[in-house]
Specification:
The protein has nine helices and nine strands. It is α/β, with parallel strands linked by helices and about 280 residues long. The chain has one domain: Thiamin diphosphate (ThDP)-binding fold, Pyr/PP domains (Rossmann fold), CATH 3.40.50.970. The strands form three sheets. The chain has a five-stranded parallel sheet, sandwiched between helices. The chain is globular and about 50 Å long.
Amino acid sequence: MVFEASSGHIGGSLSATDIMSVLYTRVLQHDAARPDWSQRDRFILSKGHCTPVQYALLAELGYFPVEELDTFRRAGTRLQGHSVLGEPPGVDNSAGSLGMGLSFGLGIRLAARLQDLDFHVYVLMGDGEQEEGQVWEAAMAASHHGVERLVAIVDRNGIQNDDFTARTMSNEPLDEKYRAFGWAVRSDVDGHDPGAIEEALLWARDVRERPACVIFDTVKGKGISFMEHNPAFHGAPPTPEQYEEAMRELAHGAAQGGAAQDRARPNGSGSDGRQGDGATAP
């Protein structure tokens, strides 16, 4: 997508790919055949420039044809560079400036509480995004109102835009800050270990009487050697030569990962033995 469009945010999409893959296939309650199902869990992509990973997942899960991915960022497409509510089906928020997603998710969850609906809201943010004041206004309000079934997910890849987060503005210790605001917190979770991701998200799903936050340690540009830990690939597409090398590396990594998963799970199913069927429920 990003290569064909010569535009898009690939580094942050790759850092979130494992988290979002586990979330959509093992935790999130949703149904591609009913994208407007009132009881579905909501996923808010607050780091809304990382649409490539969400579009790829939604297409693979049947929300729209995989072939439509080729229209990414083209004139008239539904697949814009930043999230647009309902475009395509399965996208539950519009995004642009960072820092808005947690407030948006909190509003959805408060409205659901008024209607006696018990779905969950998961909000994915970047670590650089934690510098936005609106994030902490939402964090304070969520705790004050005792909002359960609201899960903040932080993709801590250590890079924001064109530099490292610690050098731009240090925001650590994030875990202690969320705890001080009254949230239940899991931190230092490997954001590229499917088992660890699933365990942490299931823990967060079951927290009651207050919101939950999971902070994942990730690698920006994960899986492509020259993109990993490289601020230059925040929003830059690869050259043709880089694209060919990236595809070779990703294919090699997928083959190794698949073999390891087959050894760990002989039936090729999820961690509890279930097979995916389009409607995914916890």
